[in-house]
Amino acid sequence: MSCLAVDENEFLQLLIAFDEMSSSSSDEEEQKERPRKRPFKHRKSKGVVMFRDDNGELKVLPPTMSLWYNMYCQTGCQERMSDFHSKFRRRFRLPYDQYRELVEMCTADSMKEDGTSLFKRWRPGKKAALTGKPAAPLELLVLTTLRYLGRGWTFDDLEECTAISEEVIRVFFHQFIKFGSTTLYNKYVGPPLTVEDAIDLCIREYEAAGFPGCVGSMDASHVEHQRISFKHRQAHLSFKLPFTSRTYNIVTSHRRKIFSTTDGHPARWNDKTLVRYDDMASTLHDGTNPLCNLIFELYAYDENNLIIKERYKGGWLIVDNGYLNWGVTIPPMKDTDTRAQYRFSKWLESMRKDVECTFGILKGRWRVLKSGIRVHGTDKSDMMWKTCCALHNWLLEIDGLDKDYTSDWEGELGELNATDLPNAVRTLLSNTNPSARSYAGRAVDEEDYFQGSLVRDEDGAIIVRHMNMTDFRQRLITHFDIAFKKKEIIWPKARLQMDEPYANVQP
């Protein structure tokens, strides 16, 4: 008979383990016998919109049976209405073909496998394979975002039209504005990268209007933000508006194309502070912008009172009087002493309305910027602004208004006559002007030459960014006055070839 030798320590460990097992089993039995204070919750099947089938049974309406899906997402839906495309663009701001292209962009992003996808939650077939229930259709979710931006609806309103819960719409919206402020923004918003691109995009209009070297107009605008946190509320209350808002500074061409925009800043900040955060304006000032290599000529008078041309180097922007006195930011004059100064300032103010029109188009087309942003977080507000800027430039490209002042549209749309010109421009066409004294020849108080030291490049061209704003503006006034008398100044008209001859404007 054999005996097993067991160590004393091992024996004690076995006893302890046996006691723990018996105590745990007894506790489980006590928990089963102990009554629950609260009954178990039985989740009901969630449904946004309900309907009754042919048998009278109440069921959940799937998004693929919703109103919007039947009207806009089914194959061949555009063939059922004669005015489908015009109504679709009015309701969702984008043409139907570009809407389908945007859906394809979101679908392609959802299929990424590198971990950078923003829409992987709505990848076709992913949720159905895991849970047996399909995810909300991307076609409908893109429509909800366009309607939210375009008409300022709420997520609850969109829930009724799509049978998708407002939480799902909210989550998708936040992902879409990330997509719009990065992918779409980088694709459609950006300054000219070369001088040749700038000539095609903006320089020709400004040069024809008497402002050689100008590459755009710049201004800032407020956008109401209703969900500013309490600690940031005071900084976002401006002296002009009674509500909290964010301020955005943009640079546009005369064709309303947005070249650059800043991130949002508190409404208390003025233009002199905002311009330092604008990439295009600041790089023109410090000389790192490719447009600093732009060469242009201005009329001037020599010592013998003869008209000559002087070469300059560097682009500049049209602004109002709220910006810094940089040589690359030229505002109109507040007080004019001569007819030449008055004419230049009025014409410059009229040209600067292109950036004001851009703000009007943005807030009219994307009503959420006018009715007020209702999402939490200033970063979300900036994403929505950049998304709207990208969609605005995309629509300019769709309509053929981004590169040439031409269009396939027929009729008198855009053909301006004398009565269609701005009031300030019509005033300048008359020979009499009671608000400015008679001007014949050069004014005696004009300074023909810069009294400081001019900085020139190796070819002798005067570098604009090293000049003072007042001095460079006076040179522009002299050029404009000479060109106006030579009948070389024209008012750029939309959808008109810049190569075609213009009717001379009578001084």
Question: Which helices and strands appear, and what pairs or packs with what?
Answer:
Elements: H1 8-33, E1 50-52, E2 58-60, H2 67-73, H3 84-92, H4 96-110, H5 126-131, H6 138-151, H7 155-162, H8 166-188, H9 195-208, E3 214-224, H10 230-233, E4 245-252, E5 258-261, E6 265-266, H11 271-274, H12 279-286, E7 295-301, E8 307-313, E9 316-318, E10 329-330, H13 339-351, H14 353-365, H15 368-371, H16 378-398, H17 423-428, E11 462-463, H18 469-485
Parallel strand pairs: 3-9, 8-11, 9-10
Antiparallel strand pairs: 1-2, 3-4, 4-5, 4-6, 7-8
Helix pairs in contact: 4-6, 6-8, 7-8, 8-16, 13-18
Description:
The protein is of the alpha/beta class and 507 residues long. The chain has 2 domains: 119 residues, no CATH class; 251 residues, no CATH class. The chain is built from 18 helices and 11 strands. The strands form 3 sheets. Strands 3, 4, 5, 6, 9 and 10 form a 6-stranded mixed β-sheet that branches. The protein has a 3-stranded mixed β-sheet with strand order 7-8-11. The radius of gyration is 33 Å and the shape is elongated. The N and C termini lie far apart (131 Å).
